[in-house]
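Ticket #4471: structure output looks truncated?

Reporter: J.K.
Steps to reproduce: submitted the chain below (232 residues) through the standard prediction queue, then opened the result file.
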Amino acid sequence: MKHILAGLKQIGVEGRDLNGILVTHEHSDHITSVGAISRKYNIPVYANEQTWQAMESKLGRIGAGNRRIFYNDMDFYIQDINVQPYQIPHDAADPVGFSFYYKNKKISITTDLGHTNKKIIKNVMDSDLLILEANHDENMLMTGPYPAYLKKRIRGRKGHLSNEDTGRALLEIIKGKVTHVLLAHLSKENNYPQLAYQTVADILMENGVQPGKDIQIDLTYRDRASNFYQLG
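Returned output as attached by the reporter:
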C-alpha cells in the first residue's frame, strides 16, 4: 500500500481520490494491499465472480457495498469512465484485461497472458494508449535460475508474453490506430527494460515499422511510477 500510494502522490493523486480498484486476476502480485486500500479509503473493488471467489479470503473484510461484480465482455461505468473487461489466457480463475473509454479516447491494459488471439487483438488495436506485457527474454528465462516447472509455466499458453511475443503481437495491433505502447510486467529475473525495448523495436523495424515515428514505445518499471500521460 505504501508504494502504491507513493506512486499516486507523484502524479498528484491521493488515495481518497480513487473511485474504484479493478482486479484482473487473483494472483498475489495483483491483489496485495487491495483490501487494505479499499478499507482505508472506502473504495469499491471490481472483479468478476470467479476472481472474487478465488481472492476474497485473501483480501480481508470488504464492505458489502464495495464488493462489485462485473461480467466479461459486458461494459460498465465507474462515474464517467466506460470499462470493458475481456478474457485473457492465464493460469488464474478467470483473468481479464481492461479497456477504458472516455469521450473519444481509449486506453487498454493487457498483462499476464500466455498468448494473444484475434479477440484480444480486436479489443486493444484501436486504443490511443496500450499497456502490454513484455514479461521475459526467452534466453534469460531458459538459462536462468528458475526451476523447470516454473519455466514451463511461464512459457506456456497460459503463462506470460515474451519480448518476442510482444513484438509480433504489435505488428497486428498497430494495424489499428494505436500510436503509443507501454511495455509492462517485466520480470525482475528474466528481463530488463532496455532489452525488452530493443527486442520489440527490432521486430518492428524488421517489418518496416519505425519506433519513434510510426509508433511510440515507452516502458513501465517495477520500482517506480512510469511517465505520466494525458490524452487531449
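Triage note (M.O.): checked the attachment and the full C-alpha cell line is present. The first helix runs from residue 2 to 10.
Status: closed, working as intended.
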